[in-house]
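Below is how a single chain appears once it has passed through the pipeline. First comes the sequence as given, then the structure the pipeline wrote out for it. We keep one example in the README because the format questions we get most often are answered faster by looking than by reading.
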Amino acid sequence: MTKYSIEFRDVWKIYRGNGIDYPALRGVGFVVEKGEFVALQGPSGSGKTTVIYLAGGLDTPTRGEVIVNGENIGRLSEGKRAKWRRRNVGIVFQFFHLVPTLTVLENVILPMELAGYPPKEKRLERAEELLEIVGMKDKEEKFPNQLSGGEQQRVAIARALAADPHIILADEPTANLDTRNKLKIIDLLIEANRLGKTILYTTHDPQLASKADRLLKIIDGRIVSD
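Resulting structure:
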């Protein structure tokens, strides 16, 4: 049994367009141990989002290995990656990605239905408990367009926790928020880590990076410190 939640082994990601190769990651290697709270810091275009997408099984490496919870996810088919992702990782996106036609409550229940966990009779109770934790219980019948950015991101964190994944990945979770809401979101991620979740989040904000147990820095697709 590996002690690592996330392991990148000499990972390259090269996008191709118009006959030109665009390397997003260049031989990236790092590990995140189980229960760690790790920030990945770098400027725009440095490869941070690509790391999150690869760790979450939303994309596959061009070369190298991405091993998450002991699974080499680059070797899985798209369908198997989707099934694996539903139970192993929760992802918090920079632009929330809530389903606009679903209420707050329905958005949080949805990943449980996709994962088939917890049992159906417990999903409503779990969703309401999570919304209570993130301070959104009183907005559960609202739709995403009726919420502020900070409120949407709190719902996104509840959604990421819904199917009780081992790992939470967050891509610039505070980039579009004011200072007050930034601190609320980071506090929620810290609390999730306290409850045993492994957290890897990206940021270009030094203040937010300082909250992590450990800081990785990425520039031009390469890890430059660990």
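The radius of gyration is 17 Å.

See the next section for the split statistics.
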